[in-house]
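2.7 Reproducibility. Because tokenized structures are sensitive to small changes in the input, we list the exact sequence used for aldehyde dehydrogenase (NAD(+)), including any N-terminal residues retained from the expression construct. No trimming or masking was applied before prediction.
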Amino acid sequence: MNVPHANELFIGSRWVAPQGSELADVVAPFGGRVIRQLPRPTVDDAKLAVAQAQEAFGAWADLTHDARGEIVTRFCGALDKRLDEIVRVWALEAGMPFRNGDELTKAASDLWNRALDESRTAPWIETRETSMGRIEVRQEPIGPTVGIVAFNGPHMQFALAIIPGLLAGNTMIIKLPPECRMLGYLFADAAAEADFPPGVLSILAGDADVSQYLVEHPGIAAVHFTGGTEVGMSVMHACADRVANLVLELGGKSAAIVAADADLDLAVPALVDAMALYSGQICVAMTRLLVAREIHDEVVDRLVAGLEALTMGDPANLDTTWGPLAAPRFLDRAENYIERAVAGGATIATGGARPSGLEGYFLEPTLLTNVNNDMEAAQNEIFGPVFCVIPFDNLDEAVAIANDSRYGLSGSVFTTDEQAGLDVARRVRSGVFIINGTFPCLAAPFGGVKQSGFGREGGPEGLFALTQTKSITLSVAAGATA
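Resulting structure tokens (single pass, no recycling of outputs):
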């Protein structure tokens, strides 16, 4: 597949020669073969990106919202022209099945265009009359900002975090993971077409050394991080040393509660579809399935049938509903968790092995039963195709199990009792929750609580996530302290 400017890097809104000469392999998860090589960004490249972002910040922040919006609109339009390429490349280099990738990419397009619309009427500057005087409240950019995005939806994170950050007036350095090197070139090609002013936007698909340099740099005023909780903690420590602004969208161990009165013809297909989405490599995956004891066996039988009916194969094939994991380390991690869970007393209801006849990083969808909520497979984010079924006796117990987690990203309940569903939704400690479904509305504020992070993306709240609020007293009311 053709990669634009394949011998260069996109730094400071322009294609430039890399500072180093090392090349990085792009390996296809399906087949496990090297499909091409691209320049490996170095710390020196990141240093240049920071210097350019610092130099460009003042002029970019001083532009009117309309002027910035015009440029970002061009960027979104250029991305929209590349949607089909994005879907194909995502399948090729990161293993996202084409069918799901197409749906999520169209959703990303809807979200970045929604952000553009919301920005045009957002209260970036508003005047308020208070008992102590008349004030102006301004949402202002923070400064040079690093956006670290994940392989399981980088363009979704562009829509929810990067586009709003640019609209707000921040200069941005986007650090993509190694699994998205080719995607990074497509995003950069769109940015080049949009013709951002020099220094405003850099896009680098680098390794951990580049990420560490960027988050620790004293010239970086804000970081928006999407990824695992353990790495997020390290990012938080780095930002704390200089009191840099931070948004963390971290991991989850979300629980789907299947009540005794649930419509299983609705619930089970929804759960199977959610489990199949990117082989569990989704932060909002419902990896704990809390099932009313009286329907436990029936639900397990139905889930097993649904999972075993999935079509495993080439993610570029439209018929594929279960693709490979994105990298060998995710495969090894999932297998180790399964092995330890079984040693601890869990039972494999289906899956648990690498399928025969398929080359690449494949692992069968794995459903574990006889799991206690205190087992590590039920407590830790595995970020792979390992799902735990845990029985409960009443909804109070289900809520207690759901809340017995260091995470708090998402959750769901399946019930035909509308009031009971709403009661459960309000009691589960999570940033988002779904009744009779599994995937949150990303046009609404999205984010976690507890060790799933803080800050929000999506909706009007997400538009201001990378801003700081400033108030100016325009006039002091009579009798107020001057």
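The chain is about 40% helix and 20% strand.
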